[in-house]
């Protein structure tokens, strides 16, 4: 683009004027007060203001604000600018002869307040006087009063004839006196400090105004009719102000946390893992016993898992497998293990709970007929814990867990797998692999990864699956690894959350504004 | 997962080596499945959190120091221990056989018990009984001033009203039944004795009550105080190996603190045992096994060295586990200790080598196309908890709501059987957000049918704005299902959540799989929603199963 000259620019500007700008421009040649422009243009205030701001942004108008004191009509003032003041009515009633108060009331049909106000005002003007000879209080006009009855009251004239709002600094001394008098009355006049806006055309503005006068009539919208008739050929389309803000619309969006879990799913699939699933209402058998968690383990306490009220027991447990798992707990099931050495309860093993770990999916997969060796598996699933809900704990959350089965797989491969997770989920090579404890693995390890922003975080746990788990479930001792990733921490970081409860937020504004990766 | 506190200076003395608190923190993480939770420099008190629930000997400074003496090369193999023969007897009456059959006891003498040591003993007693002792049911431990006791001690079971004594923290004698009712410890641990007609009792030879295991000690003999220098240890329980373990751990701890340990004999009907038994355990372990599990290439001699670092004795192809451990079930348990002694941070990683094909669950693709369709129709996705307030759910037909028996909060007291109530919750919480509000959720619902729980995937779409209506929802439904080749009809139906005459069943094949309609003003009012709304909820299982 070559730099446009001022002249060219003004022509372009003139061609691109908005309907409202065009409407306002001619008035700017005659008026500078925004209030006057509004009145004379017969446009709405918001339209005028929008047009003036646009023009100002284009450098065509210079707007200023002057602070001024103005005089306005109050509620009663508005009334008396059209109707007569009570004292005028009082005065008119006495035009011909003095009257008793009750008669005045009757003729004028004014309230006691109005009568009182009238007497006060007329006494101050010395326009009326008591006629003392009568029994009832009676008023008559003074000479000054008679004069006033003929010529009218200054206050009434002021209210009826003055244009409000009136600028205080432009009032004459006489008017100021009247103002003072009227301000003593309720709701007639009041002062206000206002910003008086003015808009003056700049040199460019004047030029554009001239040019705008010669631009063709512009078209706002292309219509089907114009296309059919060919009228579009003669149409000039108004250019838009492309920088003007557009009203906001809310389009459909995926929930950010759920979308994050989809990414995790994609990631595992890309690493060669096959997805496993399982029910959320699960038996203790698959959730715990098959994983060699002894039935007396503290995590199986009534205070750690949610127990189902009805039905209480699973009816579809594989009987033969339950026997094998029972043996593993009681005596090691021929794995060379002593087992946990206690009496295994078959009733407890069939008790239904809310799944407390997605490892339940792993135990089901290990025992399934379609288990592949070698095989890599993952599950993303909802788990439930008996926890007090706070910024760090939920009763209902997601876990990602899985298994890797491969001849010859051992602790070294497990460390390799953990390092892979650190790379994939924290994009880091900085890791610490340290011993840990899980009932179903030995050796067991925890992975700490140095997240570029969060610092060291405990990212995952893994271990070499115990023979007491593998032999009963798989039917042979295939070396395999069990692992799990604490995905919530990463999710919270990615979504910029500090409170875990926001992962399941029902706040629509938050969801509508949430960034989607 | 117990957390214990102790003076760090005390630990250093027990360890016999200077290690900074920072190094100690790193050592705990790298070797002991534990971490420093806090350290107060002013009082020198350190709090350590331990993850391994099967290794109670490490739940005290003595045990941690013993473990690290091995790791840091201060000592090889099982720790030193000497037991002097004592002439103490505990006569076990057959009446405890079916209630709490096992007891172990020994006497320790020779060091004045100060305030700190007393606290450490009590801490270990509590951690052991609460965690490993399964809240005293499996094992409970008592400590007594030895001088007040006339041996032999008798362990027997008596009727609840047959014995009276003053328990700790009481000032008048009460019987055993009254203790269970009135004493805080009785209320806390009484469940252990539920259903028994006789209760265990420990008495000395003069008939003085020592304690009422596993509930409370006597206030006269059953109290160890600062200044005592001779004590009786006793553990009762339901598992002999565990009461033995308790005695071994305490004997080692007291021995390492300078006490002389005197054995005691437990006389059962027809047999007797001497405590501390100090039973070691032999586990056969070969370099090949170690390599198979860990990938570490070890020789017999390097394996022996690692075993000794890990606190075992090595004897040819056998690892000898110390008496203060009872966690070893399988050689893999020893192998893990070998790997830890080798140090996890020195073990080189190896990549997995086999090729496997990745795959999503077969339902995912269908679910995601429905989600995309809803998003394309400008619906905002919602993701809610599966547990919800049972009061917001209504049972449908013959199926029942799956409720949680031991819920903590009503808010999470049942498994949702419909997604609609949570959408109404969204509407009610967002009355000030811009309309139209078009929201949807896809997720799991469940209900109980007969003796089984049926889980399925469901999708709900709700549109709330001043002109929300049935036709609009029907358009969305068609837009979603027609591209999938799923044909449906809508049949008039009554549903409590919808306006009568404006609610229908979504029928696919011959099955009713969902509802569609305008939400009834009564329901909207109940949720405080001030905007008309229409909804679809559809069970997706027909699309997900082939």
Describe the structure.
The complex is a heterodimer of chains A (517) and B (546). By secondary structure, chain A is an alpha+beta fold. Chain A contains 22 helices and 17 strands. Chain A folds into three domains: 6-66 and 194-229, Arc Repressor Mutant, subunit A (Orthogonal Bundle); 75-188, Winged helix-like DNA-binding domain superfamily/Winged helix DNA-binding domain (Arc Repressor Mutant, subunit A), CATH 1.10.10.10; 258-512, BirA Bifunctional Protein, domain 2, CATH 3.30.930. Chain A is 40% helix and 20% strand. The model of chain A has no long low-confidence stretch (mean pLDDT 88). Chain B has 546 residues and is α+β, with helices and mostly antiparallel strands. Chain B is 28% helix and 29% strand. The longest helix of chain B has 18 residues, at 115-132. The interface between A and B is large, with 98 and 94 residues.
| CATH domain topology of the largest domain in chain A | BirA Bifunctional Protein, domain 2
Could you give me the name of the CATH homologous superfamily of the largest domain in chain A?
Bira Bifunctional Protein, Domain 2
- Shape, principal axes of CA atoms of chain A: elongated
CA(first)-CA(last) distance of chain B:
46 Å
CATH fold topology of the largest domain in chain B: Phenylalanyl-tRNA Synthetase, Chain B, domain 3
What's the CATH C level of the largest domain in chain A? Alpha Beta
Rg of chain B, Å, rounded: 33 Å
Query: What portion of residues of chain B is helical?
Result: 25-40%
Unreliable stretches of chain B (pLDDT < 50, length at least 5) are none
